[in-house]
Specification:
The chain is an alpha+beta fold. It has one domain: 2,3-Dihydroxybiphenyl 1,2-Dioxygenase, domain 1 (Roll). Helices cover 19% and strands 35% of the residues. It contains 4 helices and 11 strands. Strands 4-3-8-9-10-7-1-6-5-2-11 form an 11-stranded mixed β-sheet. It is globular and about 45 Å long.
Length: 181
Amino acid sequence: MDFFPLKVKELDKVRFPFLKNGITQVGWITDNLDRAVENFWNLTHIGPWQFYTYGPEMLSMMRRNGKDTKFSNATAVTNAGPLRLEMVQQVFGDMVYQKHIDRHGFGGVQHFGIAVDNMEESLALVREAGINIAMEGAGYGLDGDGYFAYLDTEDLFGITLELMCRPKRRREPLKIFPSDK
């Protein structure tokens, strides 16, 4: 793959201070979320995994390439030390994951997540660099906070980057695996 094939505007002048904390999440794409989580658990015993559905019932804002839309994905997350692991399965709608599926099939790492303190400032820097905000959603926290934005960086870096401003309080998961019941 030819890295940096895109012409990023004034690359020497654009800085991304949100990278200071490094990668905080690794996200995989799967066509069977339950099976992927169970296989990962059986191999690593990293868990427990919390399951959520990110769609119209949870998100107050959903955009694809800057246009309002509707989409849904099933997600399972866990922590491995300070790193958040995420498995994602598309449910419906035009989503950023399809590009990965079309190029690489199901499975494999699709994105690296980066925690940001201020999403608006971070997205302004991304726009200044000429990078497209491919998909974004907000409002998934209990208080209507929480914001994610996937950047169109696969052709640039070989992977999609996701900026995340995590909510202060999360909703209860739909289920947990393995269950302690």
